[in-house]
UniProtKB/TrEMBL annotation:
Biased composition (Polar residues): 54-64, 250-260
Basic and acidic residues composition bias: residue spans: 65-81, 119-133, 140-170
Sequence ranges of Low complexity compositional bias: 220-238, 275-333
Annotated stretches, region: Disordered: 54-81, 119-333
Keywords of this entry: Membrane, Transmembrane, Transmembrane helix
UniProt protein name: Reverse transcriptase domain-containing protein
TM regions (residue ranges): 21-44
Transmembrane in keyword set: yes
């Protein structure tokens, strides 16, 4: 029963006369097409009227017409036949423009043929579009012969009609001398001329001088001087080459085509020879398919070249009404024609050379020019052709295999010229659609690593976060990883040798070749700053972690309180270059190998974390692999190996810088250094020991960071840790110490940097005097102000004595309440002026007032948030000293980013 009901319903529908659904679609599609065609015709007619109105209303054309009418009345009265011939040429130009409009309408009609469901109609329309497309790229001999015969027959018939029409009209006008008056003529001597039609009007039939001129549409042929399917070949210089009709052939030999063109020109001259007019506008447009050298074509077709150039120039004024697409296609075809002509000349010149090297180089240049030419244009009619072909002597070759044929010179024909389409262009639309559709992104998980990398090369999939997440989720790797190898500068080694050795090392260990090639392509080898003597010698941070013992018993050096303590410059036998720890030694062979291997192993750490390289593997390079060259040592220079030897001889002692004299190095026993650490931190009442582990302290800090809402202004660094503190001796008294608490590894360092930049800029714009200097150059200006003020107060030149004072332990003596009050006062003073936001450059020192609007590298912070950041940094100052966790209860840490700004100035 379930099958009978639908059949009954279908029978009822047919019996009642209602058309079925497919039949309705078939009936509606032609109606829609007819409507679209009518709209296109109306639009084209309106655009033609507007263009004619603009042409007639332009002052240039009116002035030309008036000037022509002022200096030609005598000539018209003396030679009426010549004036009639000029008038005839103008009407022919109007007819050419109307034909062009009809052809354009036909092209629009062919472009919307995709609306027809009938495949036969679409196939016929596609065949017509192919015949109308660039014919010099499809040299079909049979079609060429048929088109030539058709064009010759049409030309003869139209020449006969024009000659008869001109004779008849001339007789009528001479018999009736009196007519409508015109400027510069008397009414008795002026012949009657029919009213001139506007250019661009589209009519199917028009009566001209009593003769009925019918329009005929040719497929693949058109009036000379007009466009052939929106293209035009004119005798002008395009891309540095001369393009003319003598370069254009349709699979015919040179002598036959030249004879045919010569015969056509003679027939044109004979057709209107009685009236003495110039050659008519109507002529056959040859197609460009055969490439010949300039010397061969110019010698035999000089006459046709000049005439084609004149006809092309006549139609130049009407070419602008077609559209931008036609002009772009015409320019590209002219450029290709010029380049093919130059390539043909290259091939002929190559054939006549005897020198093999010169011949090869010229051939290579010709091949490169040919490749560039073939990539310029690819018409829709040739998309089905997989490769370009050429023909010579009746035999066809693939263009990629025709190097020897081109080298032999002579005449050859290009067939199916196409531009090779890259794989990325073929699949780009598919990949973009896959990424834009959220419901299709799951298909990315089904892709292999090769497909993901290929997609990344097409649309940069992995550059976006979602692409990287898919790569990490499925494969556990990030293909966007960049290997950066920072090697200290070494004049005896070249970076390319390091790159070459690293490339070989990676390819031997990463099995996936595509991924390995991508990583090698993104690998960078850069020069880093050369290590100084201080970087090699100083080791005070190693002795600040816990309890130490005395190791100075075997050293014969000056002592203080029974332990070694001496400046490095006071030790005998050490070269003077080491007295200043800022100097740079020359890297030797042993030191160069160590530094390069260390830099390479540091650069491949991301690959080890992703599992591409085993954790136990390490890079070990040798000097002979890197082609190392020993640099020349000048007087006073030392090798890095010598500095390391000095450090090795003082092994077990603490080598640290000296405060206020960074170039000096202090050598002392670890016991003295440990005593200074305990005095400055553990026994100081400003610090309190915390009975918690480092991980617990970090978790508590992170919770307070989120509660204060600072995370929306600055991110918390999950990789950060508590900083290690250390002490350095003062230059005046080596027994006194200065505490240093670095903050480069503090998890909240980003918030401290924002606070420091904001407060320094706000102090600069607050408009009150204070002691904060924004740079060393500002010191001179401040001293000049002080001198001027002292002179004004004393009334005469007075002596001013300058004294410097040092506040003992100033960083640990600043009360937290005073610091908070100072920041609050500064924020309130600027808010009273209407300022609420401050913009901070993430990388750099630029700061402005206002709110950013998505600019790259800028971050906006509310001024109220500065109070919250200040309170958090003061209440959560934790660090490690002597292996224990300490908290600073009073003051600010020396070495922190926020401590660079002095805000206590009221």
């Amino acid at each position: 029963m379930s099958n009978q009901r639908p059949q009954a319903l279908r029978r009822h529908g047919r019996a009642s006369g209602q058309p079925s659904t497919p039949l309705r679609c078939i009936l509606c599609v032609p109606l829609a097409v007819v409507g679209v065609l009518s709209i296109c015709a109306i639009v084209l007619s309106l655009s033609g009227k507007n263009s004619n109105a603009a042409w007639l209303s332009s002052p240039t054309n009116l002035s030309d017409r008036s000037a022509r009418s002022q200096h030609r009345p005598d000539e018209r009265s003396q030679r009426p036949k010549e004036w009639l011939e000029e008038r005839l040429e103008e009407m022919l130009e109007e007819r050419a423009l109307r034909s062009e409009r009809l052809e354009r309408l036909a092209e629009v009609e062919n472009q919307i043929q995709f609306l027809f469901p009938d495949r036969e109609k679409s196939a016929r329309s596609e065949q017509k579009s192919e015949e109308r497309s660039v014919q010099f790229l499809l040299p079909d001999k049979q079609r060429s012969e048929r088109s030539e015969e058709t064009s010759e027959r049409i030309e003869r018939s139209e020449r006969t009609e024009r000659s008869e029409s001109s004779e008849k009209r001339a007789g009528q006008m001479v018999a009736k001398p009196q007519g409508r008056g015109r400027e510069g003529f008397s009414s008795a001597s002026q012949p009657e001329v029919p009213e001139r039609k506007h250019k661009g009007t589209v009519e199917h039939n028009q009566r001209e001088g009593g003769q009925q001129v019918s329009r005929q549409r040719l497929i693949g042929q058109q009036v000379s001087g007009q466009r052939v399917s929106g293209q035009q070949v004119s005798s002008q210089r395009v891309s540095g080459h001369r393009v003319s009709e003598h370069n254009v052939r349709e699979g015919q030999s040179t002598s036959q085509q030249g004879a045919r063109n010569h015969t056509d020109e003679e027939e044109r001259d004979d057709g209107l020879g009685s009236s003495g007019s110039s050659p008519p506008v109507v002529s056959r447009r040859p197609s460009l398919s055969s490439v010949k050298s300039p010397s061969e074509s110019s010698s035999s077709h000089g006459r046709s070249v000049s005439k084609s150039g004149s006809s092309a120039s006549k139609s130049g004024s009407s070419s602008g009404s077609i559209g931008v697409t036609s002009e772009s296609i015409a320019s590209s075809s002219n450029s290709i024609a010029g380049r093919l002509e130059s390539i043909a000349g290259m091939s002929n010149s190559i054939a006549g050379r005897s020198d093999s090297e010169t011949r090869t180089s010229a051939l290579d240049s010709a091949a490169r020019a040919l490749n560039e030419t073939l990539k310029m244009l690819r018409s829709p009619a040739q998309r089905r052709s997989p490769m370009s072909r050429m023909e010579k002597g009746g035999k066809k070759y693939l263009l990629k295999d025709a190097k020897a044929v081109i080298e032999g010179g002579g005449n050859w024909i290009l067939l199916d010229v196409i531009r090779t389409k890259r794989k990325a262009e073929r699949v780009k639309a598919k990949v973009i659609g896959l990424l834009r559709a959220p419901w299709k992104r799951k298909e990315l998980l089904k892709k292999s690593l090769e497909e993901m990398l290929e997609m990344d090369g097409i649309v940069h999939t992995l550059r976006e976060r979602r692409g990287r997440q898919i790569g990490m989720k499925k494969f556990g790797i990030n293909p966007r990883t960049i290997i950066v190898i920072k090697v200290p500068f070494n004049p005896g080694i070249r970076k390319k040798n390091i790159y070459r050795e690293m490339e070989c090392w990676l390819k031997a260990r990463i099995r996936h070749s595509t991924l390995c090639n991508l990583l090698v392509q993104r690998m960078r080898v850069i020069w880093a700053k050369t290590r100084t003597i201080a970087n090699i010698l100083h080791n005070q941070k190693l002795f600040s972690g816990g309890d130490t013992t005395c190791t100075c018993e075997d050293f014969q050096l000056p002592r203080v309180n029974g332990h070694v303590q001496v400046r490095l410059s006071e030790i005998d036998g050490i070269k003077s270059l080491l007295h200043n720890s800022k100097n740079t030694p020359v890297p030797g062979g042993f030191d160069s190998t160590q530094e390069i291997n260390r830099a390479c192993n540091e650069g491949i750490k991301p690959l080890k974390r992703m599992g591409l390289i085993k954790g136990g593997e390490a890079v070990r390079m040798r000097l002979h692999q890197l082609e190392w060259r020993q640099p020349e040592l000048q007087d006073g220079m030392v090798l890095a190996e010598y500095v390391k030897g000095v450090k090795q001889s003082l092994r077990g002692l603490v080598l640290s810088p000296v405060d206020r004299n960074n170039g000096e190095t202090l050598v002392e026993c670890p016991m003295l250094y440990a005593t200074g650490m305990r005095t400055m931190f553990n026994e100081n009442p400003n610090y309190e020991e915390v009975e918690k582990q480092e991980k617990e302290v970090l978790l508590e800090m992170r919770g307070k960071y989120k509660e204060a809402g600072i995370g929306k202004w600055a991110n918390w660094d999950n990789v950060g840790r508590l900083q290690e503190s250390y002490v350095i001796a003062k230059d005046k008294d080596l027994c006194k110490r200065r505490p240093v608490v670095p903050s480069f590894c503090n998890p909240a360092r980003h918030a401290a940097g924002i606070l420091s930049k904001a407060l320094n800029y706000m102090l600069k714009e607050v408009g009150r005097e204070h002691f904060n200097l924004h740079g060393t150059l500002q010191l001179k200006e401040e001293i000049a102000k002080v001198n001027k003020k002292a002179h004004d107060l004393a009334g005469m030149d007075s002596r001013i004595s300058i004294r410097t004072y040092d506040i003992k332990e100033m960083f640990t003596q600043l009360p937290h309440d005073e610091v908070r009050a100072s920041v609050q006062w500064l924020v309130n003073r600027l808010q009273d002026k209407g300022l609420r936001w401050i913009r901070i450059k993430v990388k750099g020192k630029k700061v402005t007032f206002g709110k950013s609007h998505g600019e790259d590298g800028w971050k906006s912070v509310r001024m109220k948030a500065l109070d919250d950041i200040t309170s958090f940094l003061l209440d959560n100052t934790f660090f490690k000293a002597g292996g224990k966790v300490l908290k600073q209860m009073n003051g600010i840490p020396m070495g922190g980013r926020a401590s660079l700004c002095n805000v206590r100035f009221r």
